[in-house]
Amino acid sequence: MRSNFPRWAIIGSVILMLIFAGLFMALKNISQPLPAPVMEKKAYPVENIIGQSVNGRNITAYGYGVGEKKLVFVGGIHGGYEWNSVLLAYNFMDYLQANPDIIPKNLSVIVIPSLNPDGVYKVIGKEGRFTVAEVPINSDLLKSGRFNADKVDLNRNFDCRFQATSTWQGNIVSAGSKAFSEPEALAFKNFVLKNNLSAVVFWHSQSNGVYASQCNNGILPGTTAITNAYSKASGYPAQVSFDAYAITGAADDWLSSINIPAVSVELKTHESIEWDKNLAGIKALFEYFGNK
Fold first, then answer.
1. pLDDT of amino acid 72
2. Is residue 98 part of a domain?
3. Which of 108, 116, 123, 208 has the fewest CB atoms found within 10 Å of its own CB?
4. Which of 85, 90, 83 is nearest to 45 (CA)?
5. With contact defined as beta carbons under 8 Å apart, do 261 and 222 qualify?
6. pLDDT-based confidence at 77, cuts 50/70/90?
7. Residue 110 belongs to what domain range?
């Protein structure tokens, strides 16, 4: 039996039904709240291999926090001779892992526990973390662990008043053939130039003080501020300069030459990380940068 409705009317009715059905579903979806996006929590620390030593050991930077200002802490530039500066850096990393909220929202913290892994390995005999019990008491071995595998003092290999030979405790030491001749120093240079750093703290031992960096442009105002902040909180005396003997090519002084505030915090002994004092100094820097 032939339908009384023309075919075009039937097709039009179907199209209108589909349009109304689509509008109904759209309105229904609008009326319901969208599910909250699942935010993936970033795991810390973020590991970044910034270079390798003469003997091919990784130099690793560990990042915490998400702020635009970047504060860097460096241990072990003098290797196994200043092994407590390496343990201090690792202890600080443990603290940040356990207390992530201590970092101000506008700050990122980067820790390089050992800038001279070959020097650490020469003394400790293992890579990565170690304990106090694993540190030998052989003083000659400890002193030899100050240098990298090329027997260069890395804290004389940077481009501020560089000389091929320099001094340490009255001894003549090699500073390398030219500034940044050593892969460890070059790795740190490249890391610095790739990042917009707010300040750098180097941990050393055993001169008991916070030493301001300076090159040919004098002490930067930012360096004076962080020197005083760390010193006041920690109890380490603030020092304008290291004058026990002449130092050339120091890492912190090179940073000063490119307008990055930097200090060297010298622990009182070679045997302890002096955690409470340094934690107080760290917190003072967090407060300083957190209020800027």
1. 98
2. yes
3. 208
4. 90
5. yes
6. very high
7. 46-290
* Residue 3 within a domain: no
Q: Token pair for residue 182?
A: 């050593």
CA dihedral (148, 154, 157, 158) in degrees, to 10, reads 140
**φ, ψ for residue 86 (rounded to 5)?**
-70, -45
Residue 236 near residue 209 (C-beta atoms within 8 A): yes
The 3-state DSSP composition of the chain as helix, strand, coil percent (nearest 5) reads 40, 20, 40
Q: How many domains does the chain have?
A: 1
Average confidence score pLDDT of the chain: 89
Helix (H, G, I), strand (E, B) or coil at 160: coil
Residue 83: CATH number of its domain: 3.40.630.10
Look-up of token digits 């010298």: 266
Q: β-strands 171-174, 238-239: how paired? A: unpaired
Domain assignment present for 4 = no
The CA–CA distances, whole Å, from 291 to 127, 276, 279, 284 equal 38, 23, 18, 11
What is the pTM assigned to this prediction? 0.85
